[in-house]
């Protein structure tokens, strides 16, 4: 898998995790919900950074 394929896979997984957490927020225990939410925030933020880097690197 190429570098762009890895980035696309990471972006899809991070957004899917965030969507699943939003959909299942009522059925998760509070302690687990906090750590999963922090993980999702970090992953989605890193995804946006990787998307920006790939857009700026595409012109080179």
UniProtKB/TrEMBL annotation:
Keyword terms, alphabetized: Membrane, Transmembrane, Transmembrane helix
Transmembrane segments: 6-23, 35-58
Name of the protein described by the UniProt record: DUF2768 family protein
Organism from which the protein derives: Paenibacillus marchantiophytorum
